[in-house]
Specification:
Elements (H helix, E strand, L loop, with lengths): L2 E9 L2 H15 L5 E3 L6 E11 L3 H12 L5 E11 L7 E7 L4 H14 L13 E7 L5 H10 L5 E5 L1 E8 L6 E9 L1
Antiparallel strand pairs: 1-3, 1-8, 2-6, 4-5, 4-7, 5-6, 8-9
Helix pairs in contact: 2-3
Length: 186
């Protein structure tokens, strides 16, 4: 049985990806110790499944479709920069997602619940909606970058979430290659 590295996500409109690319370009001048995410691959993960048997893909798509039922397209805004675990010892730099109506949290909980019924364990940590924009590879220039990130006020990036994607991730030396396996419209 072949295995497929899989996650459930919200993809970004191309104009938002362009704005993120501009933001990354501005931040690159502060430090070389970060591997910046390719803007075309940046997404908001709802649930990471890991390696999954290929014959489960149909059922996963069906479960995600059930999770999406009753949720109409909704507005989301990207407007906050942060670091995991924190700015003192950053490993990941992120762009936070904010949504006022509770639809994103409801969608994530429903996805988590549906997939737990077919054997995928629920995430122990609280859902923290974010987009990974870079990962630390060395400490080279991190102090200046962290200071810039903490002081950077970015123009909010609003968009409408219209679909959820079951995505395949193939890890390559040049970076992950993402392939949509199933797209569910809200």
């Amino acid at each position: 049985m072949s295995m497929i590295r899989t996650f459930i996500c919200i993809e970004l409109p191309s104009d938002i990806k362009g704005r993120i690319a501009e933001l990354q370009q501005d931040l690159k001048k502060f430090g070389r110790g970060v591997r910046w995410s390719r803007p075309d691959g940046i997404h908001l993960t709802l649930k990471f499944l890991g390696d999954v048997e290929s014959d489960k893909m149909k059922e996963i798509g069906e479960r995600v479709a059930v999770a999406c039922k009753g949720i109409a397209p909704f507005h989301i805004e990207l407007a906050q920069l942060g670091a995991f675990p924190n700015f003192k010892r950053p490993r990941v730099f992120w762009l936070g997602a904010d949504e006022k109506g509770g639809f994103l949290a409801r969608l994530q909980k429903a996805t988590e619940s549906q997939l737990s019924e077919i054997g995928f364990p629920k995430e122990a940590r609280d859902f923290s909606p974010h987009l990974t924009i870079g990962r630390v590879k060395s400490g080279d220039g991190l102090d200046a970058l962290c200071k810039a990130l903490q002081n950077e006020r970015i123009e909010p990036m609003p968009f409408v979430v219209k679909q959820v994607v079951v995505m395949q991730s193939q890890l390559r030396p040049s970076g992950p290659l993402y392939t949509p396996l199933n797209v569910i419209n809200l």
